[in-house]
Amino acid sequence: QVQLVESGGGLVQPGGSLTLSCVASTMFFSIITMGWYRQVPGKQRELVATISSADSTNYADSVKGRFTISRDNAKKTVYLQMNSLKPEDTALYYCNAGGNTWGQGTQVTVSS
């Protein structure tokens, strides 16, 4: 059973930056597609970004050019660098492994 632990969320002003981290407890980390998703109350969880085992990345249109997903296989960690944050980026951000394992989520709030 893979376990995912996210960190790095918090309160930031519009235009600011945050970096989320997700550590996975699996020896197979390097071959798993990892992703970040987000959810606001009353709405469905939505894709933010994914990164494959070959470092191929995919982003939601709403975050392209502002967010960067990356991975460190030696540390079994996936990151989400978020720049130029907007109030509409406010959400609970979830790490995902292989499409079917979720972390507990970390809150990101963008507000002045």
Any overview of this molecule?
This protein is mainly β and 112 residues long. The protein is built from no helices and eleven strands. A hairpin with a 5-residue loop joins β5 and β6. It is globular and about 40 Å long. The protein starts with a strand and ends with a strand.
Describe the structure using short key phrases.
single chain, 112 residues, mainly beta, seven-stranded mixed sheet, 11 strands
Question: How many DSSP helices?
Answer: 0
Q: Per DSSP, what share of the residues sits in E-state strands of 2 or more residues?
A: over 45%
Helix content: under 10%
Stretches where pLDDT is under 50 for at least 5 consecutive residues are none
Q: Largest sheet at a glance?
A: 7 strands, mixed
Radius of gyration based on Cα positions = 13 Å
Give the rounded overall mean pLDDT. Answer: 97
Order of helices and strands: EEEEEEEEEEE
Shape: globular
**Structural class by helix and strand composition:** mainly beta
Q: Separation of termini?
A: 40 Å
What's the β-strand tally? 11
Briefly say what this structure is.
Helix content is 0%, strand content 49%.
Describe how the helices and strands are arranged.
Elements: E1 4-7, E2 10-12, E3 18-24, E4 34-39, E5 46-51, E6 57-59, E7 67-72, E8 77-82, E9 91-97, E10 101-102, E11 106-110
Parallel strand pairs: 2-11
Antiparallel strand pairs: 1-3, 3-8, 4-5, 4-9, 5-6, 7-8, 9-10, 9-11
